[in-house]
Amino acid sequence: YHHCSRIRDYSIELWKKMRPGRQGVAIISMGSYFNDIGKLAIPLEILNKTGKLTDEEWKVIKMHTTLGAEMMRNHEIERIRKAAFIVEEHHERYDGKGYPYGLIGDEISIEASIVSVVDAFDAMTTNRIYRKAMTIEEAIQEMKDGKGTQFHPEVVDEFLAMLEEKQN
How far apart are CA 104 and CA 108, in angstroms? Predict the structure, then answer.
């Protein structure tokens, strides 16, 4: 719950910063909050594994994007259906090496690019079963290192500026 709420709150704030006055807050709110809903369909022994995942387990984990998007596209609430693309694309990488489709650059929606940056930062700065949290400074450096490869460069710049504003 806390992870989902942080992802939603940061994604909405970043969306408003990058697209002031634009429609779409409800969509990014839904897509960011439910970005990992597909993990409900992934076996717990894979999700909670403390060691290295096998190639087969990694393939199963990567299915959470399409499984989650399918769950959302079949929902009765329209704004949840409309946000499915964010769930589906949030692990695409700016350089085309992401999943599930290998989208590149601006083929990836700005909404999914925002969720990707925010989700990665939150994942880096919180303890996980398989590793301890990074410091904020380490995570910021990781974001800078991933700018233009893993992450949309404009989104990284705006996110880091937003973090800096919060610290001041």
Answer: 6
